[in-house]
């Protein structure tokens, strides 16, 4: 049975927070595209590398709301890191063929960027 877009979004965040990058990779289409305030990435392996980098400062993800319709899902969450105050984040995903094909993330990166020096 194929997971819904909402289930894939949940699995994605749980795997990322748990640093289960093998599981995370299995949720992504090979040609996934990721665009956010800190990076624009094409391809699953590059996406995983970016998420691994961000996981170095990831403390936890506190989901506030998830809205899904068909193959599209938006998750609103607070991104807790070890380097900045919690960051309200919107994450939109598009799902095709049971895999995540597009990810767009919006948040204010100033606190995280300031910590990078």
Structural class: alpha+beta
Considering DSSP H and I runs of 4 or more, what fraction of the residues is helical? 25-40%
What is the CATH C-level name?
Alpha Beta
Q: How are the strands ordered across the major sheet?
A: 2-1-6-5-4-3
CATH topology: Nuclear Transport Factor 2, Chain: A
Structure write-up:
This protein has 117 residues and is of the alpha+beta class. The protein has four helices and six strands, in the order H-H-E-E-H-E-E-E-E-H. It has a six-stranded mixed β-sheet with strand order 2-1-6-5-4-3. It is globular and about 45 Å long. The protein is 32% helix and 44% strand.
Keyphrases for this structure?
alpha+beta; 117 residues; SnoaL-like; 32% helix; NTF2-like_dom_sf; 4 helices; 6 strands; SnoaL-like domain-containing protein; 6-stranded mixed β-sheet
Question: Can you summarize this structure?
Answer:
The protein is an alpha+beta fold and 117 residues long. Helices cover 32% and strands 44% of the residues.
Write the layout of secondary structure elements.
Elements: H1 5-17, H2 21-26, E1 28-35, E2 40-42, H3 44-55, E3 58-69, E4 72-81, E5 87-96, E6 99-106, H4 110-116
Parallel strand pairs: 1-6
Antiparallel strand pairs: 1-2, 3-4, 4-5, 5-6
